[in-house]
């Protein structure tokens, strides 16, 4: 088995004024080329865990390691290039005053990738095409796009610096039901095509079952169950997982296939 690319060891996170920790001794291991889903109800600690893996929030105790090294000095350039994120709501994550091309090029500028404007413009056109938009869409502004297209723009921005790891926090839950499947299919396709490592937070086990090989079930800041998604969904060990499963109207038909 390959070494983890990203891992968290005994992560605990207390927020001031709270009587319980948001994370309580969580271990998580992400191996290159795999996909991990983090599920649980609202308040379980999923987003807090993702923010730790992204290095934007520090654990009260415990350690994040990236490529075998502790991330204790903060997010160094290689980390910021290789670990990118897509958030839930593209409306608030895209600056309305910037053109799509500027938005997508932003990580290239801040990470000083690409020597000149022409090289950056070429990369922007490339990633817009990869997410199903047109290079000329770069001249337009976020409000001119639908919710699903705006999430495609956010995904293009995340892909621009050619990351190895894509973190996604509820990437389809702000979208109309009709476009959710399109974005799930796009993520699936990109992960396969680019060999990305995916860590996906979702309250929805059905979405995790479509995108992730492994799943980690959280409750009250702790991991209650983990394992291959197919095993956890077809034969859940924890009562809590069974309750989450019972809340899904119908599991996808392809559940038994490898995602
Ligand atoms: N900045 C903060 N200050 C205080 N408490 C916080 C903060 N961020 C999160 N919490 C608390 O930590 C706990 C875990 O929150 P978190 O957002 O990680 O859960 P979640 O599983 O992602 O839920 P949701 O699906 O609702 O986002 C909750 O009790 C939440 O209120």
Overall description:
The protein has 259 residues and is of the alpha/beta class. The protein has a domain at 6-91 and 163-245: P-loop containing nucleotide triphosphate hydrolases (Rossmann fold, 3-Layer(aba) Sandwich). The chain is 37% helix and 22% strand. It contains ten helices and ten strands. The chain has helices at 46-53, 77-82, 90-93, 100-110, 117-130, 147-159, 177-194, 205-211, 229-234, 239-246; strands at 6-13, 23-30, 35-39, 61-66, 69-70, 83-86, 165-169, 197-202, 214-219, 222-228. The strands form two sheets. It has a six-stranded mixed beta sheet with strand order 6-7-8-3-9-10, sandwiched between helices. The protein has a four-stranded antiparallel beta sheet with strand order 2-1-4-5, with helices on one face. Strand 9 and strand 10 form a beta hairpin. The chain is globular and about 55 Å long. The chain starts with 5 loop residues before the first strand and ends in a 13-residue tail after the last helix. The mean pLDDT is 92. Bound molecules: adenosine-5'-triphosphate.
Give the key terms.
single chain; 259 residues; alpha/beta; Rossmann fold; six-stranded mixed beta sheet; four-stranded antiparallel beta sheet; globular; binds adenosine-5'-triphosphate
